[in-house]
Amino acid sequence: MTSKALDALRIVLVGTQHPGNIGSAARAMKTMGLSRLCLVTPECATDADEARAMAVGAEDLIGTALRADVLDDALADCTQVYGCTARRRHVALPEWTPREAAARAIAEVQAGGTVALLFGRERSGLSNDELQRCHAAIHIPTNPEFSSLNLAAAVQVLSYELRLAALAAAEPPPPAERGDPPATQAELEGLFEHLDRALVAIDFHKGRSPVTVLRRLRRLFLRARLNEREVRILHGILADAERMARLAAERRQ
Amino acid sequence: MTSKALDALRIVLVGTQHPGNIGSAARAMKTMGLSRLCLVTPECATDADEARAMAVGAEDLIGTALRADVLDDALADCTQVYGCTARRRHVALPEWTPREAAARAIAEVQAGGTVALLFGRERSGLSNDELQRCHAAIHIPTNPEFSSLNLAAAVQVLSYELRLAALAAAEPPPPAERGDPPATQAELEGLFEHLDRALVAIDFHKGRSPVTVLRRLRRLFLRARLNEREVRILHGILADAERMARLAAERRQ
């Protein structure tokens, strides 16, 4: 699954100015298992000796790279497009970290989509017009006093996060929890309602407001990412506590 | 705190062969806020034009770099040393991912330590003798069919993870949980014992073995990383459930 997921990811270099960066970007991609390179209106020779010299074994990615004269041609069959930006731009786009973007990209390709990651020119990045083709912007959290990330270094960071996300998605769940699907939101809400009733039944509040404690318990159980079986166990405990409260109440009558 | 943490991290390049890689490594470090470069027995001129050309604004890191003729001199004041390896070696060292290594390095510098990350030669990496000075090996999870990561690219990936770890460590805890310290292991064990007694009291098991369900609940609450206040709330709920069970039992007598 890992390599299949990575095959549906496209690295699109727009207007690249230095052939060495094309070679280094190809090498960065290949070390992380990515293979689909696309070169849009490069401002340098893409098969220059310098490009091949920097590829060091990843020349095949340059050879098979898609070439496009218009950005839209490079993106035509993509279901999601993310643009890598060094600075915050005046384009209203959701802004993701590389890690968030990688998780979303892998989820998209697992659902059958194709995702393009756009990297702009060395000097000026992506234009606003190019960013307007993107579903989201990716911002690598650099040192605010020196954010001059090399183009191939940016491709390296994103390719690395994409590989980790693909490996994580391909991993089987931990053995103990295998076969226990995560609880749905409706199941969790059902549990919280039961919890609310049970706390009243066992007289937990003793006159205090239940709001704060219920909010805390809700946060705790959401954080734990309960699975279906755990929700059933907790319902069972609450039901028995309620049963005891009923028996105790019958006694008082 | 972020920059202070990053200042106690040293990137040590051992036997570097290409001056361009020293420049690119310096640039990679500086984009992520790292500044302490150390060059041990480089096999190239470290102030060559090529090094400065690739640094593109990070020449200062080359200028202020420590230079050492012997690796031990570069590591003398370090409290932890991690070695970056491309391949698995015949050296018995714990092996960490970049993410694990970054989290441990930041924890170490927050505790007042100094951490060195070692990067070996372009062609042959670190020698076994050099790795034997390390507390752990870092393995970047590359494509097994093409693991030829450029030296500066490896420095970029590690520097990026170190920056993220430093930023995460500097972040205040979420507002709602602020002021509630995490529960200690002893507090959690006390909660699990109470849970055990309460489940018996409310007759949750009904003749079945309690082992599996207790194991599941233990896993759930460990995963949730309870804080002290949450432990107190859960104790309170269990105490009230037990109280109801006692009242119900008195009725049956």
What do these coordinates show?
The structure is a homodimer of 253-residue chains. With 253 residues, chain A is of the alpha/beta class. Chain A folds into 2 domains: 2-170, Alpha/beta knot; 176-252, Helicase, Ruva Protein, domain 3 (Orthogonal Bundle). Chain A is built from 11 helices and 7 strands. A 7-stranded parallel sheet of chain A has the order 3-2-1-6-4-7-5. At the A-B interface, helix 2, helix 8, helix 10 and helix 11 of A face helix 2, helix 8, helix 10 and helix 11 of B.
Count of helix runs of chain A: 11
Summarize the biggest pleated sheet of chain A: 7 strands, parallel
- Integer count of domains of chain A: 2
What is the chain-wise order of helices and strands of chain A? HEHEHHEHEEHEHEHHHH
How far is the N terminus from the C terminus of chain A?
64 Å
> What's the CATH C level of the largest domain in chain A?
Alpha Beta
Beta-strand residue percentage of chain A:
5-15%
- Class of secondary structure makeup of chain A: alpha/beta
Shape assignment of chain A: elongated
Largest interface: A-B, 60 and 60 residues
Q: How do the strands line up in the largest sheet of chain A?
A: 3-2-1-6-4-7-5
Describe this protein with a few key phrases.
homodimer, 253 residues, alpha/beta, Alpha/beta knot, seven-stranded parallel sheet, elongated
